[in-house]
Each structure stands twice: as structure tokens, then as C-alpha cells.
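Final report, closing paragraph on structural work. Over the funding period we assembled a curated collection of sequence-structure pairs, and we close with a single example.
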Amino acid sequence: MEYMQLPAAAADTQSHILCCQCGIPISPNPANMCVACLRIQVDITEGIPKQVNVHFCKQCERYLQPPSTWMQCALESRELLTLCLKKLKSPLSKVRLIDAGFIWTEPHSKRLKVKLTIQKEVMSGTILQQVFVVDFVILSQMCDDCHRVEAKDYWKAVVQVRQKTTHKKTFYYLEQLILKHKLHQNTLRVKEIHDGLDFYYGSKQHSQKMVDFLQCTVPCKYKASQRLISHDVHSNSYNYKSTFSVEIVPVCKDNLVCLPPRVAQSLGNMSQICVCIRVTSAMHLIDPSSLQIAEIDGSTYWRYPFYSLFQPGQLEEFIVIDIDPIANNKNVPGAGTKSTKHTLAEVWVQKTSEMNTNQQYYCRTHLGHLLNHGDLVLGFDLVNSNLNDENVNKMNPQRVPDVVLIKKSYDRARRQHRRNWKLKELDKDLNDAGAEDEKQYLEFLEDLEDDDIIRKNVNIYRDSSKVPVESDTDDDGAPRISLAEMLEDLHISVDATGGEGAEMID
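Its predicted structure, as stored:
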């Protein structure tokens, strides 16, 4: 038996039918209609909203995911696309989602466009695929956290940091540590008062984290208390406001202290008259008569407290008349560690305010590596001062030096002119800052230039607005900060959707 093959044209003719609506040849399907007519008769996007509202908080730049979750999402990110699709979760459950993606829009347009590709079975098994766009309108709404911040009176815990000193060097250093470790992100408000700072928090856990950080960075002690605000008798729930009172040791850098005899003996029989050269997690002291150094932590200080004899505001200017470095500084048996960064020297100095007299003062100093004949140096005059301190009154008067030199004096205006770096500051409620506060801040900047150990814990940024002009006359020996230690201060503007771009326009 032989079979005859039909021509190819005849085979194609038999595999097509006419559309029941428009009459064009189509491949057979259960609906007997072409794709264009099928889309006219059936709309598979019916029931899916083409415009949806999305709530956005401009303060913290987060989006609301119902019912009460706020999410941080960047522009055209996977997280933002997931949030938008969850807005259409119920309508999309009736169709099959094939693809979804963003269509670019202007960052300030308050619009997000999402292109969706869906499939749905219609008319006896026919699968229809369609592409459409859904517009998401961004509406401004303040989240609960930002609302509490703006209210400025809603807080659950407060950390009150205090230091009973006239100088704010420790607070300036503490502010830079908080900025570096980003401990200020959870604060509702930072308030500055005359002797400290207040940090307000929305939860007790955040305030406890700040207290733990303070204990690791500065020598301090704290007390905790709480006050009952409300009580629900039905659910047996309590609402408290917690207060943490943190007290930092009342000793700053460049302070002159007199140690109790028991403390001085436990530190290697060092002299009771010491200079505080640094305050970090402990107080770093140096004996200017022997270069012996020691550290006193917070627990030791509060067990045997002592106070400052002189503050940095009481420094007087001296001129070096004669200096003789001490080469053979023998170690006394039982003495503690001696500093290798300083040089012991015998110095004759005279006050610049007494240049018309012959009054000169002899002392030992730890600044032998910095001082030369004719240099200006800052120090404390003990022989002409009335020292009202219990430990000093019990000392042998012959062991009390006439003058204690603290640091070498440089031209402040020249140092400020060539300073090409800057520091960031906390966004806090400031009191009226006077000339004294500005002077103390400049002294703190000079301390950063002098001490490289403190400088390692601080983020220093290059100030692009200042271009220092170098000349031969500017080099007076004052320490500087190299460019390798500076960071670039980046200013990235964030748009309404959390990505890079312009800010949202109301």
C-alpha cells in the first residue's frame, strides 16, 4: 500500500482556522480567537490596582511595610521591589507573576513605576500573558520613632554625663569617640549643659549600651534610678523612665594633682605632685621630677579620691633662661616605669610678666626634649599660690616644687592659620557658647596635634576649604598632623527613595 504526501502548502492550510471575531487565520485554540480579540474580550489585569500609595518617612528615610514595620530601602533595590509587590499580594494571588522590574523615574517625582508580566488561564485552558505598569505614589508620613524625636519630650531613658571641672577637654574627646563608634544614632536628643551632656533614648537598652561604652572609654562611675510613670492593672504592665547618672573623674589633661601618700607609694614611690598628660580609659600621670609614669583607673580613683591643684586656665607663661638635660637618671629600687618619650632636665625660668625683675625659678621638668634657651613655656606657679589641699598640707615643703612646667608655648594664631583639618560635632542643643568655650576648643585641637596617642582614637577630616601656604618663617617647631592621618569628608546627598540623588521635594 502506498501513501501520498500532501504538499507543504496544503499542510499549512489545514493547521489554521479563522478568528471568530475578525476572521484572520490563526492557529487553533480553545477560544477560536486571535490574541488581539482575546485581549479585547478578556482583561487579565482586572482587579489589580494600577496606582498604589507607599508611605515614606523623610526624617529617617524608611518605608512603611504594613502594619507597623518601617524598612530602609535604596532606590530600585530588591528590598523596595519586594515591598511594592507585597502591596499587590492579594490581587496577584489570582494570576501567575512572570517578571517584575522598575522603570526609571526622576528621584524627586515621588513616583515609582513597576513593570509587571503576568499570565492567566482564560476560556477553556487558553493561557494569556500581559505586560502592564503599576504606579506607586510616595506619600510622606512620619514614623513613630521620628515623631517621638520631634516631640522632644518623649523618652524612656536618659544618660546624664557630668564632670566637675572648669574645662571641657574630656567632653570634646568623648564627643569624638561617640561619633567614631556611631553611638549617637539611637539618641532622641543630645542636650548640653554647663557641666556635662544629657543623652535621651527611646529604650532602656540603648541607654545601657551608652553607659557600658562610657565605662570602657573614660574613668567614671554611675548610678541608676527609675521613676514609675503609669501602671496597667489589667495587664500588670509598668511604664518607667530610667535615669543613669555618670560621673567622670574631675581631672583633665594638663591638670596638676597631688596624690594621696598611699596611692603614690603603690605606684612605685613616685612623687605626689604629678601632671596629668592624658585621660583615656584611665588617667595617665607623669612625675616631672623623675619621669616616672603611672595609670590610675576609675575604681582606684574613687577608692582614694584626689583633686586638681591647678586647672589649665591658671597656666602662666615663662621664658627659659637656662636648661641642662640630666643624662644619668638612675632608677631607684622599687620605682615604677619611666617614660621614654620625655627627657628630664633642670631648668631656670622667669615669668614673662616679671621681666623687669630678677626673680627666677628653678625646677625639674619632663619637657627637656622640647625646650631650648629662650623658648616660651606654660606652667603653674606653686610658690606664690595658696594651695588649699589636704595632701599638699601634709607634704614636706621641701618636696613641693616652686614651678611645674606643663607644655611648650607656640603662636596660636599661626597654628590656627595653617590648620588644614577639622572635626565633626554632635547635633546637640547648645547653650550660649562664649569666648571661653571657643578658647577651650582650640586648646583641644592643639592637644590633638601634640599627642599622637589620642589622635589615633579620633576621626580627623581634611578641610578642603583651607589651603595652607607654606613658607620658611612658618616652621616654629609646632607639631602638625600629616595628610596620611586625615580622612576625606564625603557629602553624599540622599534622595527620597534612599539612594543617591537629589532630595525629595514637598
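The chain has 13 helices and 25 strands. The two ends are 85 Å apart (CA to CA). We thank the funder for supporting this effort.
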